[in-house]
Design goal:
Layout (H helix, E strand, L loop, with lengths): L8 E4 L4 E5 L11 E4 L5 E4 L8 H4 L8 E4 L5 H4 L7 E4 L4 H5 L16 H7 L31 E2 L5 E3 L4 E6 L8 E5 L4 E5 L16 H13 L4 E4 L7 H13 L2
Parallel strand pairs: 4-5, 5-6, 6-7, 11-12
Antiparallel strand pairs: 1-2, 2-3, 3-4, 8-9, 9-10, 10-11
Helix pairs in contact: 5-6
The chain binds zinc ion.
């Protein structure tokens, strides 16, 4: 397999938000990582696969304290979380952070029985190997495991992450996973939604998922005066698309 020129891609969304992603990771595990610049501190929403150092890739962006938040503890969102000093997650996700999957997450032939088929039924193509390049010579996808870590702070519904000139409220949005959270900025109508909602196949038939809780989360999201949603995967979208995605999900139940 070829060696990637660089592991992360970066896109400036506006004067304070930067999107990072891993283009060589298969869509299923290609997570959006959001860097939000604040006055006193910056925020990082999700931390990718951990295949290559996110902290190194972000070096130019890091000029003040960084609050790294995992919207939930799935492999594709927490891989590089251990690299950061401040690691925030919901209490219901903390244990999983410390006990990542023991199977080779990058090699679907070695996943637990039935997992690949289940993910495919839910709308994803699952290749044998979930990357199309190596980050460096000698990288071994079969040996790769997510690095375990401990949260430094637990966050739950109603907590506020204050960056000095702006603030994000924690919304507990269970369904995809028990402790899935979103970060909501009321003043701009901006929602970082993690995997609670994004513009792609939503996963509600995986370990830890709860379809009933998911439906309640969808109803809640419908009430938010949203301007823009930056999801855990796929492109960002506005209120109208949010409502369409919610309706699609609820009518498929
Ligand atoms: Zn997830």
């Amino acid at each position: 397999m070829r060696i990637a020129d660089r592991w992360f891609e970066t896109k400036r969304i506006d004067d304070r938000i930067t999107l990072l992603w891993e283009p060589h990771v298969s869509r299923l595990d290609q997570c959006n990582m959001w860097h939000i610049r604040g006055r006193d501190a910056d925020l990082l929403v999700d931390a990718g696969m951990g295949i290559s150092s996110l902290k190194d890739a972000m070096a130019k962006l890091l000029d003040k304290p960084l609050i790294a938040v995992a919207t939930h503890s799935h492999t594709d969102h927490v891989g590089s979380l251990h690299e950061f000093d401040q690691r925030l997650v919901h209490p219901l996700e903390a244990e999983q952070l410390n006990q990542p999957d023991e199977f080779p997450v990058l090699c679907s032939c070695h996943w637990p029985k039935g997992l690949r088929e289940s993910i495919e039924r839910q709308g994803y193509e699952v290749p044998d190997i979930l990357i199309d390049a190596y980050p460096y010579e000698g990288f071994d996808p079969l040996a790769f495991r997510t690095q375990k870590t401990e949260p430094t702070r637990l966050i739950d519904e109603g907590d506020v992450l204050d960056l000095g000139n702006c603030a994000f409220e924690v919304l507990h949005l269970p369904g995809h996973s028990p402790g899935s959270i979103g970060l909501w900025e009321q003043s701009t109508g901006t929602l970082f939604s993690g995997d609670a909602i994004y513009d792609g196949p939503l996963l509600d038939d995986i370990e830890g998922a709860d379809k009933c809780a998911y439906a309640t989360t969808m109803e809640r999201l419908r009430q938010l005066p949203v301007c823009v949603v930056h999801g855990g995967h796929d492109p960002s979208f506005g209120k109208q698309r949010l409502h369409t995605l919610i309706d699609q999900y609820l009518s498929s139940q």
